[in-house]
Every structure is written in C-alpha cells, then in structure tokens.
Amino acid sequence: MLSRLPVLTRCLSLAALCVAGPVAALEFPLPPPGEDIVGQVQVIKAKYEDTFADLGTANDLGYLEMVAANPGVDPWLPGAGTEVILPTRFILPPGPREGIVINLAEYRLYYFPKGQNLVYTFPLGIGREGWGSPIAHTSITAKTPNPTWTPPASIRAEHAADGDPLPGVVPAGPDNPLGPFKFTLGTPGYLIHGSNKKFGIGMRTSHGCFRMLNNNVLQMAGMVPVGTSVRIINEPYKFGISAGKVYLEAHTPLDDKGNPSVVDKHTAVINALLKREDLANNVRMNWDVVRDVVAAEDGLPVEIAVPTVAPATSLSSTPFEMPQ
C-alpha cells in the first residue's frame, strides 16, 4: 500500500495537469531542446455505455494503459458520471528522436517524421506469452495496402489444435487479421499492421507482430516511407525534464519475451537514470516519491526531483528501499 501523504500529494499534482474534454489525435509539437514531455493528462466523465476498450479506441489509448491509469475503476462498466483519467501525457522514449520508436513496456509507438518538429504516438498490441516481440533496431522494408495473410505453419498448427483451422491464405478484407495495411520490418517474420479486432490493442495479444487500430495504421501509411528506422526498446522507467522539473513515468516491467517480469526494481530504476547523463549527477531526488511512482506503475509522468547546481547526493549512498 502507498502511504496516504504521497498519494494525496501525487493526486494534487495530477489535478493540476488535468483538463476536461475529449482528446484530439495524439500528435504533438516536439518540446524545446532539453525537454522531454508532450501532452497533458485529461479527465472525462464516463457515460453509462462506456468501456475502457471503447474509450481507448476513441482516444488512441491502449486497454492496459487505461486500466493502469484508473485503479479501482471497473474497465467494463465504469458507471455514468465516473471520472476516467486519459493518460495522454508522455515522457518521450530515450535515444534519438527519429523514425519509429516502439517501447514494449508501454505498448506504444512513437513516430518522429523527418524534417518536422512533431511526434505522433499510437497504442500497440504486442506479442503474447510464447510469442514475444523482439528488441531490435531495424527499418521499414515494404508497405502493403489491403494485404493477404499467409499463416505460418506454427500458427496454423496452433489454430488446428484449438479446433479452428485456418486456410492457407486469408484474402484481404474485413476478416483479415492484418487489417487494411501492413508495414514489413527488416527483422524477418515481424510486421506492423492493422487488425480485424478492435479489442487487443495495448495488450499482449499477437504472435509477435505489432497490431494497430486501423485508423492509426492508415494514418501511418500516409506518413511513413520505406527505409524509416524502427528502434524497438523495452524501457519500463522513463525519466524526463519539463519546465525545469524532473519526472518519472513507470510501467509494469516486461521480460525479453514480452511477459510481466519480476525484476530488481531498485536496480532497473537506477540503470534508467544512469542512462540520462544530464540527470544522474545533477538532481536531488525525492526517493519517497520515486518509490511510490514505481509501485503504482500507472504510466503517468510524476515530478520526482529538480535539477540542482549544488553537488547532489551520490546515487550509491542514497537510501532507496523498494516496496515489497
């Protein structure tokens, strides 16, 4: 359990960031040099018929990130008038802001179009248990509208064992699991594609490929050229700076196969911080807040420190006891 005071402080910080009303497509101007955060958290009031799956589809958000941001709210029947957080504020992923960056731990894709001061971000379905999505640095090698699907032998065998045999080739159309468009990756056997199922975006549901909402993949089809870099990472803890303050965004860690992982969170957070050379030796952390953010794993950027010109306490001697 989180202590009551940090939770109250965190809720007050969140309230200051929230704005009511529907969210537009997740396209943002890039922040100024030295800053890392885009968007704003939003709060809406659910209607009687709303579900997290529907709200996510309408707002370019995945199912699990909706669940994480709204603990205690029934995802299938939030209830008329219930306040629902839309987690539409993001710390940009670490590394170069170019091409496509997929962060498995977020179930999310970021696209930085060349020569434009913009970033687009979309929810993804990733590989489920036994079919993990890869960590790789690859590129878009082909673009195909209205693709057919030739199921691999392994998938045909799986379906046959479940009493649901597949044809040798599934034609293009509304029943095609690849949806209306696919991007072929240089990593053999992997695609970014649409889907014939609305549910499953933002979850571990695929055979390793990356599923998108159909309107999202069609938007990408018009923007992303062949040859675009695709960097696939697995970073559950992202640090970022905005308006002179340091933020942490925490997600449930996944292992190399894309499954929820039991990791040494203390080590993982420190390692993520050390990758930010501009922060690691130049901030004074509120480790109590860091602990609470890591425990919550709600995907919301939370202020955890401010940069300081005075010598900071060394990381190795800073007490940081993770919750059990």
List keywords for this structure.
324 residues, alpha+beta, 9-stranded mixed β-sheet, 4-stranded antiparallel β-sheet, 8 helices, 20 strands, globular, disordered N terminus, disordered C terminus
Oligomer: single chain
Order of helices and strands: HEEEEHHEEEEEEEHEEEEHEEEHHEHE
Give the overall silhouette: globular
Largest sheet: 9 strands, mixed
C-alpha end-to-end distance: 9 Å
Give the neighbour order of strands across the main sheet. Answer: 2-9-8-7-16-11-12-13-15
How many separate helices? 8
Beta content: 25-35%
Rg calc? 20 Å
Structure, described:
With 324 residues, this protein is of the alpha+beta class. It contains 8 helices and 20 strands. Residues 1-17, 19-24 and 310-324 have low confidence and may be disordered.
Strands, helices and their partners?
Layout: H1 4-17, E1 19-20, E2 27-29, E3 37-39, E4 42-45, H2 52-58, H3 63-69, E5 83-86, E6 89-91, E7 99-103, E8 108-112, E9 118-123, E10 126-127, E11 136-145, H4 153-161, E12 181-185, E13 191-193, E14 204-206, E15 210-211, H5 214-221, E16 229-233, E17 237-242, E18 245-250, H6 265-274, H7 277-280, E19 283-285, H8 287-296, E20 302-307
Parallel strand pairs: 1-4, 7-16, 10-14, 13-15
Antiparallel strand pairs: 2-9, 3-6, 4-5, 7-8, 8-9, 11-12, 11-16, 12-13, 17-18, 18-20, 19-20
